[in-house]
Amino acid sequence: MRIIPLFEKELEQTVIQRLSDSYGDNQVYMKRDDGIPYSFGGNKARKAAEFYRDIKRTEADTIMTYGSNSSNHCRIIANMAAGMGLACHIISPEENREILNNTKLVRDFGAVIETCPVTEVAATIENRKAAYEQTGRHPYFIAGGGHGNQGTEAYVKAYREIEEYERRNDLYFDYIFHASGTGSTQAGLVCGSLRSGNAGRKIVGISIAREEARGREVVKGSIRDYLGADFAGLYREESLIFTDAYRCGGYGKYTDGIKQTIASVMHREGIAMDTTYVGKAFHGMLQYLKEKGIQDRKILFIHTGGAPLFFDALERA
Ligand SMILES: *Cc1c(COP(=O)(O)O)cnc(C)c1O
After folding, report:
1. Pairing of the two strands 62-66 and 139-142
2. HSE on the CB side for 261, CA within 13 Å?
3. How far is the CA of 151 from the centre of ligand 1 (A)?
4. Pocket of ligand 1, candidates 43, 71, 186: which has the most ligand atoms within 8 Å of its Cβ, to mutate?
5. For the chain, which residues score pLDDT lower than 50?
6. How close is the Cα of 72 to the center of ligand 1, in Å?
7. pLDDT tens digits for range 97-122
């Protein structure tokens, strides 16, 4: 197994920057996890760094994971497997056939892409894994989106970076907003805040796909998995804010309002956002602040990446 030097040590803190005054009476800051210097960055790069360390402890020769044609996670895992000199096998739902930038990159990294009906994904993963094991191979499986304790750990670390920034700059973020999908980004941030006893701060996950009841349950499950025995003592229902009010009908769906927000952030700040995750969540955050009458607060938005999706949209325009 080859090493990836960047992942051999802890990642450097990502930049937190203040944005312009274009967003009402609040001071909005952005944490640039899209700037993580690996495979176009994003939260999947932060999670991959944690999986990397775990894979290194095993004798894995093949990384298996799951994701759609637009998956940032699959791009980064396929890239990491290529860098480590490991095989990569990706199971993908056949319903999404469009060849997108992430699809092409996964292919260029030499991953095997196996498609199957979305209802057969779980069974296909099991079968494929068993087949590898039977031939003496050692597959290492990563859940879709980098879900799991390593993914959560990645955002516990991001939370510590945020606190470190606050200490150094003598300020306090009243709110942290971000796009919430599989939920491990949110689980990590919430675990970080519960562990540091800073539970007064509101961490708001803007759902980009899931309905509230299911989305909450999954994030809560990840928090429980990560905290283990500490869960009962630390967890409060009010520390988990997950809203589906801005999901616009589900995964990948977006409105003209979202497109306008993306264009204006690009013009004002020079920051690119995609319609599936980051632009949708940023737009949702602005609506949330307005609807709840939130003013004169310091707000941190986490840019979770997705650059290839930005270019998908650009190529379509
Ligand atoms: C996967 C992803 C998310 C959602 O993160 P989860 O940890 O799955 O909730 C947000 N933004 C981007 C760009 C992503 O690729």
Report:
1. parallel
2. 20
3. 11
4. 43
5. none
6. 8
7. 899 999 999 999 999 999 999 999 99
Q: Which atom of ligand 1 is nearest to the CA of 181?
A: 9
C-alpha 133 to ligand 1 mean position (Å): 30
Q: Taking the mean position of all CA atoms in its chain, how far away is CA 245? A: 19
Q: Best substitution site from 149, 185, 203 to test ligand 1's pocket, by max atoms within 8 Å of Cβ?
A: 185
Q: Which residue has the CA at smallest separation from atom 4 of ligand 1?
A: 181
Q: What is the pLDDT of residue 199?
A: 64
> Taking each helix axis from N to C terminus, what angle separates 212-227 and 149-169, rounded to the nearest 10 degrees?
90
- Both structure tokens of 102: 């992430």
Beta-bridge partners for 32: 303
Ligand 1 mean position, distance from CA 277 (Å): 7
Q: Is the pTM of this model over 0.90?
A: yes
